[in-house]
Recover the amino acids of this structure.
DNA sequence: ATCGTCATTTGT
DNA sequence: CAAATGACGATC
């Protein structure tokens, strides 16, 4: 028998707060049909700590779950009893109204849930770090810093807009050899001097380090915060809190920094938006560029998508009139660009007697030789290991070599189902009728050749030259200047003081030949990123690309015309009905679940369903046979499509359907 | 997980 | 015909 006195005291302990006794709480549950706030009562004891934005624990359907307190209000719509907040985890307001609104907008855009977005946006709490104070940093002086933006058309206007707080939206193609971290730092410093904050998102932590260093050179270093995934939980939360508390006003980071909770946002920047690291691999799969566009729109802040190359998505921002392009005039581009040549035309084998094992196309060999003779480093870009397997004779294992330049033959690795003839990984020449030079066999086998093997072969072509490799798990951030061969995979090219004297872009044919919607765009992006590290032509800078000069993408590199290439890419996507010209969604899962889901979606009349088709999902616990359907709509119906997909997922979880399906909007890989 | 609601079964 | 049991769905 329980004493009535104890029961009475227990009830009395939970007296409601006098001011705003209702809390609107976003509970952290993964179910789409519960993706909305729930009301709770706030007890008097929690009245002071239960502030909007704080983390709480609530009883939800019998279990204790985490949640965010969105707001304190006076009344509730809910008919029936309200439970009390169980606990206020801490009064730190981690979820600002602005961030909550961003999370809602991102969830809506991607047919996902706010809880999923917040898992990406808010780092785990670290109590000891939270107890520390965050000292506010000084702002740069009002006049700002001198910039180099006048080299670009509309560049000066962009800086002026940022310094006066006018919203600007720009798609920027950096000049070859541009000190782009410095240019981005100039924009951030301008915004900071105007009393607002800047967020700069770059692909990887090497870029974070470069841009951070450039920012620190222009501002006090405690005003700038570097956020990247490789920090431990304590440092990550400390820096994030500095931003959230308004102590720092410039954020430089990788993907997760797209949600950085800056005060008074004035500028959002994504650098190299074509890099696939900008696509979040966790649900609801948001893309940095899209999230920053949403935030800029929501906050009236400026937006810049910068890069050496231009994506079709960025091109759409320009063509729709949402953003202006910021590019240099052709004459300025020509001053800064290296001389680029292909290998497909005017082919002539190098006549260097020392190079009889691995001979390069003559142009490539000569460009490298000239750079090395001028005491300059040479960059050699090769695909990631296993990306393009090289071929060897099936009989005697002798590496299969190009009959024109003796380069290694290869086949495109990924997703190429149709029979394709092997081709030279260096000069791009196609070899439809292979015969082994050693034994005469016509049969080939694939073998994996990475940067290491390429480096070894090149070393023999240039005896006595230092050869370094960068890629995979050994990425070099920088290399010392001086004559050397630097063999790097795309994205791992080391920075060198003074730039490279030459770059050899091998495997061009294989990259371009991939049966991927983005093959051309991605190839040009990789080429330009590497070629931009080569000295201007008037300082002897040469780039040799292992592909036919007649190809459109090779032409775009030679003429250094990323905008023109993006324009044609977008036109082609328009014609084919692919993203970003149309909005597309993929629905994936076991066959019957996909079929049922697609049938249940309340699709806009304009929608077109493609498939479903079988897809192979490799898993640690045995591979799974899934199906995938694609749904596409005109861009104007994108919102309706996302809403319909969110509804159908909510229905499924409400009904406790056993098979899970994965819904992804504008997936990166669609073919 | 747990609670309330409603239909169905079981006990008088 | 009331009480006990169970299926189901919402979850504050």
């Amino acid at each position: 028998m329980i004493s009535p006195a104890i029961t009475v005291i227990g009830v009395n302990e939970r007296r409601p707060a006098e001011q705003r006794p209702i809390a609107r709480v976003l509970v952290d549950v993964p179910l789409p049909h519960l993706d909305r706030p729930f009301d709770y009562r706030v007890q008097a004891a929690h009245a002071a700590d239960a502030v909007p934005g704080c983390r709480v624990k609530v009883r939800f359907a019998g279990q204790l779950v985490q949640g965010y307190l969105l707001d304190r209000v006076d009344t509730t719509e809910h008919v029936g009893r309200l439970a009390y907040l169980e606990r206020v985890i801490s009064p730190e307001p981690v979820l600002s109204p602005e961030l909550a609104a961003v999370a809602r907008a991102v969830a809506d855009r991607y047919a996902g849930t706010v809880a999923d977005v917040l898992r990406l946006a808010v780092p785990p709490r670290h109590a000891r770090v939270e107890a520390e104070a965050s000292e506010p940093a000084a702002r740069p002086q009002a006049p700002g810093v001198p910039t180099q933006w006048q080299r670009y058309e509309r560049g000066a206007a962009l800086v002026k807009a940022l310094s006066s707080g006018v919203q600007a939206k720009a798609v920027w193609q950096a000049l070859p050899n541009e000190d782009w971290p410095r240019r981005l730092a100039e924009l951030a410093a301008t915004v900071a001097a105007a009393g607002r904050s800047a967020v700069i998102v770059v692909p990887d932590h090497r870029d974070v380090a470069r841009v951070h260093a450039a920012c620190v050179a222009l501002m006090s270093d405690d005003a700038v915060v570097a956020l990247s995934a490789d920090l431990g939980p304590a440092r990550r939360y400390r820096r994030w809190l500095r931003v959230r508390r308004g102590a720092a006003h410039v954020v430089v980071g990788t993907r997760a920094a797209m949600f950085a909770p800056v005060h008074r946002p004035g500028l959002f920047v994504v650098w190299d938006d074509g890099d696939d690291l900008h696509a979040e691999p966790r649900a609801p799969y948001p893309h940095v560029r899209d999230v920053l566009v949403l935030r800029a729109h929501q906050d009236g802040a400026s937006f810049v998508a910068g890069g050496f190359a231009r994506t079709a998505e960025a091109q759409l921002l320009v063509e729709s009139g949402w953003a202006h392009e910021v590019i240099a005039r052709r004459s300025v581009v020509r001053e800064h660009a290296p001389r680029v040549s292909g290998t497909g035309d005017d082919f002539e084998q190098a006549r260097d007697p020392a190079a009889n094992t691995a001979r390069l196309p003559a142009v490539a060999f000569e460009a490298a030789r000239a750079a090395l003779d001028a005491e300059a480093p040479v960059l050699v870009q090769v695909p990631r290991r296993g990306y393009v397997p090289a071929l060897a004779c099936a009989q005697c294992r002798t590496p299969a070599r190009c009959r024109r330049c003796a380069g290694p033959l290869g086949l495109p690795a990924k997703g190429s189902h149709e029979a394709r003839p092997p081709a030279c990984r260096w000069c791009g020449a196609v070899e439809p009728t292979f015969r082994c030079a050693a034994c005469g066999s016509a049969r080939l086998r694939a073998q994996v050749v990475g940067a290491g093997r390429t480096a070894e072969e090149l070393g023999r072509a240039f005896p006595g030259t230092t050869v370094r490799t960068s890629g995979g798990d050994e990425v070099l951030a920088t290399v010392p200047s001086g004559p050397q061969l630097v063999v790097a995979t795309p994205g791992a090219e080391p920075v060198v003081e003074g730039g490279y004297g030459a770059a050899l872009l091998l495997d061009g044919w294989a990259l371009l030949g991939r049966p991927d919607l983005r093959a051309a765009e991605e190839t040009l992006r990789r080429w330009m990123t590497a070629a931009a590290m080569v000295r201007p032509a008037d300082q002897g800078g040469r780039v040799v690309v292992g592909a036919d000069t007649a190809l459109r993408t090779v032409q775009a590199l030679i003429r250094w015309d990323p905008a023109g290439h993006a324009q044609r890419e977008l036109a082609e996507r328009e014609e084919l009905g692919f993203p970003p010209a149309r909005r597309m969604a993929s629905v994936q899962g076991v066959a019957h679940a996909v079929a049922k889901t697609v049938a249940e979606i309340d699709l806009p009349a304009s929608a077109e369903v493609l498939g479903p088709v079988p897809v192979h999902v490799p898993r640690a616990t045995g591979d799974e046979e899934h199906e995938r359907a694609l749904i596409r709509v005109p861009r104007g119906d994108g919102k309706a499509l996302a809403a319909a997909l969110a509804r159908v997922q909510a229905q499924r979880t409400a009904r406790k359907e056993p098979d899970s399906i994965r819904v992804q909007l504008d997936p990166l890989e669609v073919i």
User: Anything to note?
Assistant: The CA atoms of residues 200 and 269 of chain A lie 5 Å apart. The longest strand of chain A covers residues 63-73. Residues 1-12, 345-359, 413-417 of chain A have pLDDT under 50 and may be disordered. Residues 22, 25, 27, 29, 31, 33-34, 37-41, 58-62, 76, 78, 80-83, 654-656 of chain A lie near DNA strand C (CB under 10 Å from a C1').
